[in-house]
Amino acid sequence: MSKPVFARVVAVLTASALAFALAACGDNAPSPDLAAGVLAGGGDDTFAGEVAGSGASSQQSADEAWIAAFHAAHPSARISYDPAGSGAGVTAFLSGSVVWAGTDEPLSQSQVDRSRGVCARGTAFEVPVYATPIALAYNLPSLQEGGAGAHLHMDPTAVAQIFEGGITRWNDVRLARLNPGVQLPDLPITVVHRSDKSGTTKTLTSYLEAAAGPAWPHRPGENWPNEVGQGAKGTAGLVMTLSQAEGTFGYADAAQAVGLGTVALKVGGGFVTASAEGAAKAMDQSRFRDRSEGSLRQVLDVDYATREPDAYPLLLVSYDVVCRAYERDPNGRKAAFAKSWLTYLLSQEGQRASETNAGSAPLSPAVRQRVMSSVEAIEAS
């Protein structure tokens, strides 16, 4: 990542800073002209002033690219995103202090009900904007440097047994059977998990519940469910802990597991590494959740137990939360921004920028088309 996870991401208004941010997006970055064509809304003054969002740290790298492109089309807008975490972002949204929230976890019914205080008509809704593979990462330099152990093989049961404390050494016979020909070191395994509430933890525990069977006795949740290992706050804290200690094992957004070994998970008859391609294939196996009549919510249920060849099932789907219309928004500026912002994020150009900057799996055209039906219902004046 180009900035610390807990740093505040701000769209800088100077031309030099903007040029740098757009250059960071690579060849697939939307140019100012292209961004202006994709983004909905009026001229440069449409969103003049400050527009704030807050939420999932998983979206930070993607938001850097998105904010730069949006600012290219609307230079008078001062857009910021605070990657304070999913829970903090939704809380800020429900208090009315930000226009949108990023979250790795769909809204609870209680949160939907509370959103009537900030939404003028109906309730808040979430739409998927970002999907990324979650890597199971480890620090074993003797294997990683040689290449043979850069992607150790594990099945869901072995992963569960490590996180549950049943496998405690790297040369355990159960791991050796899955990795013939690899000289596993005689070292203790130190599990590192998130110490804070985390959508990434919810994704991992959902996968283990679905794929590992009785080897994982816990329900999915945002809090780590047992006393095994040590905690680290945030994605940055977890990755830093893994990087500093040999023998560690944890989980993080694959794009942030730089310099670490990552597990190839057993899926069906083969092993699949954490990649945007594998995540995209898993997303194709996912289904939208049924919703009540009139609801604009768009929630994807991932098939964590898929046996589809080449699909990587440990997939995190991240959402943006907005209102159809906002309270205390007499000119409709908030709603106009939300509609234009999401229209860009869900465009082909927006998804390319996210893939380049954050290693995400682009949402498929079919998913984007369905989600846009909710975005188009936002009542922008």
From TrEMBL:
<dbReference type="InterPro" id="IPR050962">
    <property type="entry name" value="Phosphate-bind_PstS"/>
</dbReference>
<dbReference type="InterPro" id="IPR024370">
    <property type="entry name" value="PBP_domain"/>
</dbReference>
<dbReference type="GO" id="GO:0043190">
    <property type="term" value="C:ATP-binding cassette (ABC) transporter complex"/>
</dbReference>
<feature type="signal peptide">
    <location>
        <begin position="1"/>
        <end position="23"/>
    </location>
</feature>
<keyword id="KW-0813">Transport</keyword>
<dbReference type="Pfam" id="PF12849">
    <property type="entry name" value="PBP_like_2"/>
</dbReference>
<comment type="similarity">
    <text>Belongs to the PstS family.</text>
</comment>
<dbReference type="GO" id="GO:0035435">
    <property type="term" value="P:phosphate ion transmembrane transport"/>
</dbReference>
<protein>
    <recommendedName>
        <fullName>Phosphate-binding protein</fullName>
    </recommendedName>
</protein>
<dbReference type="GO" id="GO:0042301">
    <property type="term" value="F:phosphate ion binding"/>
</dbReference>
<keyword id="KW-0732">Signal</keyword>
<dbReference type="InterPro" id="IPR005673">
    <property type="entry name" value="ABC_phos-bd_PstS"/>
</dbReference>
<keyword id="KW-0592">Phosphate transport</keyword>
<feature type="domain" description="PBP">
    <location>
        <begin position="46"/>
        <end position="349"/>
    </location>
</feature>
